[in-house]
Specification:
binds uridine-diphosphate-N-acetylglucosamine, alpha/beta, single chain, about 45% helix, globular, seven-stranded parallel sheet
């Protein structure tokens, strides 16, 4: 069976890594038997900076992609079209039996759309499409990711879901039961596999976040990159005012996404931040974090996981971080009005804060005082990728 996986943006890499590993383990077990899976990994190049892409491959033991399509940044339409054109060429050349797409980025939707309409021969013939992390809905169609999720799910043959709400959403949309598979969360597979390695990373020392006895100092970790939060100056300033208040109580470490860095320069908001260089050796073992919002470049996966695991609290507008903090037992304040991952609120450590100054500060105060335990929603047990491979083998192996 020929399997082709398409990735493109930072959160895709953590979601595909355990699947690549599970396929290799499966092949080792069957050793030449007819269910052997030939796997190809295609990187669209939606993300291309070293810190947003290549650093993850080494960190997560991912093999180098079999093809790199180099699409780069552009408007949604142009980027999606470029991905489609280049993925089509690869699919016609390779003719996989199944195409795996993960998450909700433009690369996910573009690859699913191509695979759904391609014909290998004049008589037809197309790959099956498997969507990993299917069924999540924020019910907010102003989010580009929500459009990507809806389109990808409607085209996919295999809908691999991470939580019960996703099953409910898909049923509500009339999806046939046999397409839905509750397998768990491959991003949590990665977190569990790399947690020990992450805790050994020297990033706290590099950032001056350890006491002289080697204990972590208290800090808040921030991520912020959603267009609705950083592309509108008024909303961005409201959020920054809240962060300014919070930073008087707890220093904030802010690995800033390139999109956000561009926006705070464009809007002239640099005054809110303290920019730290982390490259210089002289920073080692110095106490760097002060009151304020300390901006650092984006980190590789295990460094970021180390920062998350040791934070007093995480402030974020990311989707995946709501899940990772649930698993780590770290209180999370989500700077959004909605979430497509409600299990993180019902069973986890997450609270929605909205995007107003008052709402964010209030939610921070509620969350910082909370004694949260770590939580494991159903099937967030490190075995999601193995379940995915098993479903594909059971349903696609030749008779
Ligand atoms: C994309 C995903 C989003 C995901 C995020 C994670 C879509 C629609 N959005 O958003 O769901 O949460 O990735 O990071 O697919 N840029 C660089 N270097 C890079 C990549 C991007 O400088 O390697 C800059 C460019 O200015 C670019 C901007 O960031 O225009 C946005 O990149 P893009 O991939 O369009 O969307 P993200 O905001 O990264």
């Amino acid at each position: 069976m020929k399997v082709l996986s398409v990735v493109g943006a930072r959160p895709n890499f953590m979601k595909i890594a355990p699947i690549v590993k599970a396929i290799a383990e499966h092949n080792y077990d069957v050793r030449g038997y007819k269910t052997k899976m030939d796997h190809l990994l295609i990187h669209t190049g939606q993300h291309y900076d070293f810190a947003m892409s290549e650093s993850f491959f080494g960190d997560l033991n991912l093999p180098a992609p079999d093809a790199y399509l180099g699409v780069g940044s552009n408007s949604h339409a142009t980027q999606t079209a470029e991905i489609m054109t280049r993925v089509e060429r690869i699919l016609l050349e390779q003719r996989p039996d199944v195409v795996i797409v993960v998450g909700d980025v433009n690369s996910t939707m573009a690859a699913a759309l191509v695979a759904s309409k391609i014909s290998y021969t004049a008589k037809g013939g197309r790959p099956k499409i498997a969507h990993v992390e299917a069924g999540l809905r924020s019910f907010d169609r102003t989010m580009p990711e929500e459009i990507n999720r809806i389109v990808t799910d409607s085209l996919s043959d295999f809908l691999f879901v991470t939580e019960q709400s996703a099953i409910d959403n898909l049923r509500h949309e009339g999806v046939q039961e046999e397409r839905i598979h509750f397998v768990g969360n491959t991003m949590i597979d990665t977190l569990l596999a790399f947690r020990d390695k992450a805790l050994d990373r020297p990033v706290l020392r590099t950032l001056g976040l350890l006491t002289s006895c080697g204990e972590p100092l208290p800090y808040a970790l921030l991520t912020l990159h959603r267009p609705s939060n950083v592309d509108d100056k008024d909303t961005f300033v409201d959020i920054l005012r809240a962060l300014e208040q919070i930073a008087k109580e707890l220093p904030i470490v802010f690995p800033a996404h390139p999109r956000t860095q561009k926006q705070f320069s464009r809007f002239g908001l640099d005054g809110f931040f303290r920019l730290l260089e982390t490259e210089s050796d002289s920073l080692e073992e110095r106490f760097l974090m002060e009151q304020g919002i300390n901006v650092v470049p984006p980190f590789p996966y295990t460094d970021f996981l180390c920062l998350m695991a040791n934070a007093k609290i995480v402030l974020t507008d990311s989707g995946g971080i709501q899940e990772e903090t649930t698993c780590l037992g770290v209180p999370c304040v989500t700077i959004r009005d909605n979430t497509e991952r409600p299990v993180t609120i019902a069973e986890g450590t997450n609270r929605l804060a909205g995007t107003t100054t008052d709402g964010i500060v209030r939610t921070f105060r509620m969350q910082i005082g909370r004694n949260v335990g770590h939580s494991s929603p159903r099937y967030w047990d490190g075995k999601a990728a193995n379940r995915i491979v098993q479903v594909l083998v059971d349903q696609l192996q030749p008779l």
